[in-house]
Amino acid sequence: MKREPFPRRNETSNKYRVNRQIRVPQVRLIDAANEQIGVVSTDEARRIADEAGLDLVEVQPNAEPPVCRVMDFGKFKYAQKKKERGQSKAHSTLKELRVRPAIDPHDLEYRLVQGRKFLEEGHKVQVVCIFRGRQRSHPELGFRVMQRVAEALADISKVEATPRMNGPRLNMLLSRKPSGHGAPAPAARATKPAAGPAPATPPAPTPASPRASAREPARSQARASEDGLPPGAAGR
64, 123, 160, 207: most buried by Cβ count inside 10 Å? Predict the structure, then answer.
């Protein structure tokens, strides 16, 4: 027996039928104003959608008759994709990072790389330091390790719960800093000093006109005659 190429009516399908793809004789119509029109023929529903400049979209194919809505199918698809992207984002979870009171520096560096990766992915990190045997009599060793972890990841995380002993375990909770936290402030623009008023320059001497130069000897001779001096003595 051959398998049917298309899903049956009672099977769910993620694909929406639009406009001419809707081939049932009647649909239950909801117009663009979200008002129930009722059961109409598919041709009438398409005509109403065409007059509104929108699409006829089958939103409930399993109903009897199928429910169709008059809408902008492009905007509808965009809203659906945006909703799916929001649901697919990974939620923040609690990751555990285990250390020891006398942990080797190389092992600690490896743990710090793991912790930074968890924080960058948006998870919270619970740092756990486990004491065994005689280590319980030296809790200060575990607090030192916690301090080193907090300082190494301080650029990307903040201490949400300070280190606290719980039996043989020392726990500390780190969470991601908000984006933009601790961003360097923009450099201040260098401002040019305000220019002072330009020094005043003495006005250039105005050259005497040729006519004034020609009249000057005559005036000198007239002053000399008034003073009783011989002609030509005024210019000496």
Answer: 123
